[in-house]
Design a protein that fits this description.
The complex is a heterodimer of chains A (about 325) and B (about 210).
Chain A: H1 11-23, E1 27-31, E2 34-38, E3 48-55, E4 72-78, H2 84-94, E5 100-105, H3 108-121, E6 128-133, H4 153-166, H5 171-183, E7 185-191, E8 211-214, E9 225-228, H6 232-246, E10 254-261, H7 267-283, E11 287-294, E12 304-311, H8 314-321, E13 324-325, E14 330-331
Parallel strand pairs in A: 3-4, 3-5, 5-6, 10-11
Antiparallel strand pairs in A: 1-2, 2-4, 7-8, 7-12, 8-9, 10-12, 13-14
Helix pairs in contact in A: 2-3, 4-5, 4-8, 6-7
Chain B: H1 5-21, H2 23-33, H3 38-55, H4 61-75, H5 80-94, H6 103-121, H7 131-143, H8 147-163, H9 188-204
Helix pairs in contact in B: 1-3, 1-4, 1-9, 2-3, 2-9, 3-4, 4-5, 5-6, 6-7, 7-8, 7-9, 8-9
Classes of the chains: A alpha/beta (about 325), B mainly alpha (about 210).
Chain lengths: ~325, ~210
C-alpha cells in the first residue's frame, strides 16, 4: 500500500492541520475534541446545522462547513464515527439560540454516538432535532440489517437545510425539510476497485480485474451483486432501475440528479455516467431540474460512483439555489 | 479474595495489553465482515484509558471502571465506543463506593453492564455481536459459588460464545449488510469481549 501519509495514527490530526492551514480564515479547527466550525459561529438567531461521521469521505462533511451549509462538522477517525464529546462541543459552538439540527447518516456507530451525545447534552438547554439519512436502496433486507445506509442524499440535505436555516426557517421547519429531502431521495453506488484504510493497509474487499460490485457502500460494504464489467450505459441502468422503482419516480417528476465519484474516479468518467443518467431520466419522463457532478461523498481511493435522485418541490429548489460558500460547494456568492 | 482497586487496575492494564497484542487479529476479523477498525479503535481507547487512570488516583474498583468508560466514550468512536463505554459505565455505577467487591456484587455489576449494552445496541442473542460472548459469561459468573471459579468459568463461557458466533449470520452493525456472507467469520466484538474476561481471570483469580 502506498499513501501520502506520515503515519496511520496521525492521518486525521495531520489532515485537520491542513484544513486549518488552508481555510483558517473561514473555519476554526478544534483538535480536542475534533470539530471544524464556521469562524463566525454561532450565528445569532439562526438554526445551527451540524453533521459528522467517519473520515475518508472528504469533502463530506468538513468541506461543507460555511455560510449556506453546515455550521460545524465532527470528523471521526477514518471510517469510524466521531465520539459524543465532539457532537456536544459542536452543538454548543453553533447554537445561536434557535436550536441545532443534527444530520446523521444511518450507521450503527454514528447513530449510537449521536444518541449518547443527546443523552449527555440533556440539561444544556439546547433544543436538538435529528435528521437521519437512509437513502441507499442497495440494502434490500433492511429488517434483518442495521437498515438502509445514509449516502449521497446527505450532501443534498446539508445544502438544502443550510439554505433554509440561512433564510430564517425555524428548527422544526429546517428538520422537516431535511426529512422530506431524505424521504424523496434514493441512491445506489458501485465500485470498480476497493478502498484501503490507512490503519489496515489492505483492500476492504477483493474484486477481480474484470468485475464490478453493484450496490457498494461507502466503506466498502458489499452490494447487491457482482458481475463482469459492462459499458457505462449498462452500469447506469443497473443503478438507476432500483432507484427509480423504489421511490417510485414517475413520469412528470422534477428531480435533482447527483452523480458522485467515490474518490478515485476521473471526472471525465463521471460525465460519461451523467450522460447515461440523463438519457434514462429522459426515457422515463423525468425532468432533471438541477444536477451535481463530482467527488462529494467519497470512499478514500475507491474507483466507482453513486447516483442519487431526489424528487424536487419548489421549496427544495429554492434552497438548493440559495447562496453557499464552503470550501467544497460554492455558488451565488 | 474480593476485588480491590489494585485488582481492577491490574485487570484494565491486562485488558489494554490484550488490545495492543491482538490489534491486528481484531483488525483482520473486522476487515472480513466489518470495516476493519475494531483493533485499532480498542487499542487507541485502552491506551487513552490507561493515561486517564495514571493521571488521577482512583478510589475503588467502580471508579476505575468509570474512568475507563469515559475514556472509551471520548476516544473510540464507532459502535465499540458507546458499547464498551456503556458496559464499563454501568458496571462502575453498580459498584460505586465499594472498596472490596465480592462475587455477587461483581456478577450483578456485569448483569447491569450487559443490560446497558443491549439497551444501547439493541442486540439480541445470535445477532453475531459482543452480546453472544457476554451473556454466557455473565451467566457463568452468576451461577458460580466462588470468585475464582466464577472467573474461570466465565472465560470459558465467553470463549465458547465467541467461537459460536462463527456460523451466525450478522443482524446488527455493519456486518449485517453482508447477509449470508457474514457466516463463517468470528465476530470481532465477541472476540474483544472474550479478551476482557480473559484479562479479568488473569488479574482477579487467585
Amino acid at each position: 500500500m502506498k499513501k501520502l501519509i506520515n503515519s496511520p495514527d496521525t492521518v486525521l490530526q495531520d489532515a485537520l492541520h491542513g484544513v486549518e492551514a488552508a481555510y483558517g480564515d473561514r473555519v476554526r479547527v478544534i483538535y480536542e475534541p475534533a470539530v471544524i466550525v464556521r469562524i463566525d459561529a454561532p450565528v445569532k438567531g439562526k438554526v445551527g446545522l451540524i453533521s459528522g461521521g467517519g473520515s475518508g469521505h472528504e469533502p463530506m462533511h468538513g468541506g461543507f462547513v460555511g455560510p449556506g451549509m453546515l455550521d460545524a462538522a465532527c470528523p471521526g477517525e477514518v471510517f469510524t464515527s466521531p465520539t459524543p464529546d465532539q457532537m456536544l462541543e459542536a452543538t454548543k459552538a453553533v447554537d445561536g439560540g434557535a436550536g441545532v439540527v443534527h444530520i446523521v447518516k444511518n450507521y450503527t456507530g454514528d447513530v449510537m454516538n449521536f444518541d449518547m451525545a443527546a443523552d449527555m447534552g440533556k440539561g444544556d438547554d439546547i433544543e436538538v432535532e435529528t435528521v437521519l439519512t437512509n437513502d441507499d436502496v442497495a440494502v434490500e433486507d433492511s429488517l434483518y440489517t442495521a437498515g438502509r445506509r445514509g449516502v449521497g442524499v446527505t450532501v443534498l440535505v446539508e445544502k438544502i437545510c443550510g439554505g433554509a436555516a440561512d433564510d430564517g426557517r425555524n428548527l422544526q421547519q429546517v428538520a422537516e425539510l431535511g426529512r422530506r429531502v431524505n424521504a424523496n431521495g434514493r441512491s445506489m453506488g458501485m465500485a470498480l476497485t476497493p478502498c484501503i484504510t490507512p490503519a489496515s493497509g489492505n483492500p476492504s474487499f477483493e474484486l477481480a480485474d474484470d468485475e464490478v460490485e453493484i450496490g457498494i457502500g461507502i466503506h466498502g460494504e458489499p452490494g447487491r451483486f457482482r458481475e463482469k464489467i459492462g459499458p457505462a450505459s449498462q452500469i447506469a441502468e443497473r443503478l438507476m432501475t432500483p432507484i427509480l422503482e423504489d421511490l417510485p419516480f414517475s413520469s412528470g417528476d422534477r428531480v435533482l440528479a447527483f452523480v458522485n465519484g467515490m474518490g478515485g474516479t476521473p471526472l471525465i468518467e463521471l460525465f460519461v455516467m451523467y450522460n447515461e443518467v440523463a438519457k434514462i431520466a429522459g426515457q422515463r419522463g423525468l425532468t432533471i431540474e438541477r444536477n451535481l457532478i463530482g467527488n462529494y461523498i467519497t470512499s478514500l481511493e475507491m474507483q466507482g460512483c453513486s447516483i442519487t435522485l431526489v424528487k424536487l418541490d419548489d421549496e427544495m429548489v429554492r434552497y438548493w439555489d440559495a447562496p453557499v460558500n464552503t470550501p467544497a460547494l460554492r455558488w451565488g456568492v | 479474595m474480593p476485588i480491590t482497586r489494585d485488582g481492577a487496575l491490574d485487570w484494565m492494564n491486562r485488558f489494554a495489553g490484550e488490545m495492543s497484542e491482538h490489534r491486528q487479529e481484531l483488525v483482520a476479523l473486522d476487515t472480513a465482515i466489518g470495516d476493519g477498525d475494531h483493533g485499532t479503535n480498542m487499542n487507541r481507547g485502552m491506551t487513552k484509558a490507561l493515561e486517564k487512570l495514571d493521571a488521577s488516583p482512583q478510589d475503588d474498583p467502580g471508579a476505575v471502571l468509570k474512568t475507563v468508560a469515559m475514556a472509551l466514550v471520548s476516544s473510540v468512536g464507532g459502535a465499540a465506543g458507546p458499547l464498551y463505554g456503556t458496559l464499563f459505565l454501568q458496571m462502575g455505577n453498580a459498584l460505586a463506593g465499594q472498596s472490596e467487591v465480592d462475587l455477587p456484587a461483581y456478577a450483578a455489576a456485569w448483569r447491569k453492564g450487559l443490560e446497558g449494552v443491549q439497551a444501547r445496541g439493541k442486540a439480541q442473542p445470535q445477532d453475531k455481536t459482543m452480546v453472544d460472548a457476554l451473556i454466557p459469561a455473565v451467566e457463568a459468573l452468576e451461577a458460580a459459588s466462588d470468585l475464582d471459579g466464577g472467573l474461570r468459568a466465565a472465560v470459558q463461557a465467553a470463549e465458547e460464545g465467541m467461537k459460536a458466533t462463527t456460523p451466525l449470520v450478522a443482524r446488527k452493525g455493519r456486518a449485517s449488510y453482508l447477509g449470508e456472507r457474514s457466516a463463517g467469520h468470528q465476530d470481532p466484538g465477541a472476540t474483544s469481549t472474550y479478551y476482557l474476561f480473559k484479562s479479568a481471570a488473569e488479574a482477579l483469580a487467585g
